[in-house]
Fold these 2 entries.
Entry 1:
Amino acid sequence: MDLGISGKRALVCAASKGLGRACALALAAEGVEVSIVARGREALEATARELEKVGAGRTAVTMVSADITTLEGRAAALAACPQPDILINNAGGPPPGDFRDWNRDDWLKALDANMLAPIELIKATIDGMIERKFGRIVSITSAAVKAPIDVLGLSNGARSGLTGFVAGLARPSAKHNVTINNLLPGFFATDRMHTVITGQAKTRGVSYEQALAERIATIPVARVGDPAEFGAACAWLCSAQAGFITGQNWLLDGGAYPGTF
Ligand code: NAP
């Protein structure tokens, strides 16, 4: 299927690794001009080279080494891609812990990364999308928005705030062919997930393999997600064909969430 987005411009945040990178790769494969943002230069450069390969001369790639949770970082990202047609919001997730230990600064960091940065980027880009009559905004949140995980209180809270905000904004912009949706990853094979399983194995005194097997046992498809599957879903949600879908929270979790809705 031709997704009808060749030549569009995308700003993909937190995209040198993992799910953001997978989204950038899937968009570049469709001929989208991709600007990727991450802090570390080395992984950013490696991903930019891969994007150029995947785009096979049909697409331009720019990279921005910046912290997307800061005002300066967002300014640098927007300077590289001032008028995106596609915005993929993403940042690192907050650390796990006990809410009794978190102070105001911990909460502000989580809110900056997983709620306020996406809202600021939407604010900076949505009016151009409305004028051009095409926009696709996708925020990477978490399955924890639907099924909260007790130790991830910072993530549960901040991401739910973004989800509520987006639900209100998605309707008035829809008539301009600007859609706003969220993708909720379950358990995907990325560096972050490797770190999470390593931590769980250590805490519980079991091997990495055992901790991973126990986690997989909770997923009906009986495996972890491939970031490429996530990227493909994201690219489709950004397609011309997906213009009738907005304000949705799309769970990609191999069936782990047990509810009917
Ligand atoms: P990952 O593999 O660790 O990759 C994170 C990417 O984000 C890297 O490119 C990293 O590069 C970049 N990044 C992090 N903080 C940044 C910042 N402040 N500014 C700019 N770039 C930043 O993580 P992932 O698994 O893809 O996860 C992506 C998001 O999905 C996270 O919020 C995570 O909590 C959420 N999530 C993931 C899963 C999963 O199964 N993987 C499940 C639920 C939720 P630099 O560090 O160099 O900046």
Entry 2:
Amino acid sequence: MQHVLVTGGMGFIGSHTVVCLMEAGFEPVIFDNLCNSDTKVLEGIARIAGRSPIFIQGDVTDSAQLDSVFEAYPIRSAIHFAALKAVGESVSQPLRYYRNNIGGLLELLAAMQRHSVQNIVFSSSATVYGEAEKMPVTEDTPLPPALSPYGSTKQMGERILQDDPYFQTVCLRYFNPIGAHPSGLIGELPLGIPNNLAPYVTQAAAGLREALTVFGDDYPTPDGTAVRDYLHVMDLAEAHVAALRFLDEATERSAFEVFNLGTGRAVSVKELLHAFERVNGIPVPHRIGARRQGDVTELWANPSLAEQRLGWKAERSLDDMLRDAWNWQLRLVNQ
Ligand code: NAD
Ligand code: UFG
């Protein structure tokens, strides 16, 4: 079994990916400092996969801790999820974001080099496209200056990997992952007040928040609300298995490859809200508020390159995402 280092593997996307890796016959080695996750996730993963994954508590900015993981396991590849991800927080605490996201990436790469590991899958974000002029965005859409320190850590991370061809990189630009494992045993665990739309919707529906604020209905879009490309976290998780296989097997690839991961479907805030109410048969209290600073009007993917080259395509519908997100929220409330 191929050992894969999964930094940030206890988090939202990481935990779902660990399940897919175990099911696909890989041996994930989770390395996470638990700054935005909880060891309870391990129980959920174990119930789904039938056994516990390897977990080491550690920090990617700590080279000695990284060395001990590479010494303990015959790691062949790394998936690097570990990062801080709150856009607003990155504006008020930029140094913390650069230290964790860039410092962590540099330490990881140095440790990989010391232990002769070349393959890496990097978690990038659609945020690197900023306010793009033409929709949907393809991978060769030029990247404008980043809108936040968080966004610039993703642009810089991509650039660092691109500049060093020792590393065989698949860089994945995620659009908006939502939903949860259909079992309801793992999902997203936002600490405090959620920043993102889907967890806010489920918490408002559950009565944990008074009402969702729709950030602006005066955008130049069909219903006035902002448009994104939401994809099911299980589809996203599966893309990482495809990326590892691509690194191992593709005969024609360059040292740095980048792919958009989205559905290619444009969905507005109101559309998502109403789909949630219809699918789950529950109203979501909401009001219209002002635009959120830094939000782009619309952003959705042309995901065809991932289909052509990775053989990956998002299969699950918006209804699936919203049903699974609600199922997970109900489990959390009843825990
Ligand atoms: P998450 O916060 O749920 O998971 C990240 C995990 O990394 C957490 O378990 C956290 O404890 C861990 N971590 C953070 N810093 C660490 C460090 N220094 N050392 C070890 N572990 C550390 O986030 P997520 O939503 O699963 O995101 C995973 C990755 O995908 C991140 O790189 C994020 O920037 C990127 N991404 C996420 C989204 C999204 O909407 N969720 C969109 C685009 C890109
Ligand atoms: N929104 C609301 N009310 C809320 C939360 C969000 O109306 O309470 C709206 C936002 O204004 C936006 C849409 O819902 O129009 C989606 O917002 P999210 O915060 O869920 O997602 P973003 O597209 O703003 O950003 C997310 C991640 C970023 C990542 C980006 C990639 O938070 O880290 O996707 O596209 F970079």
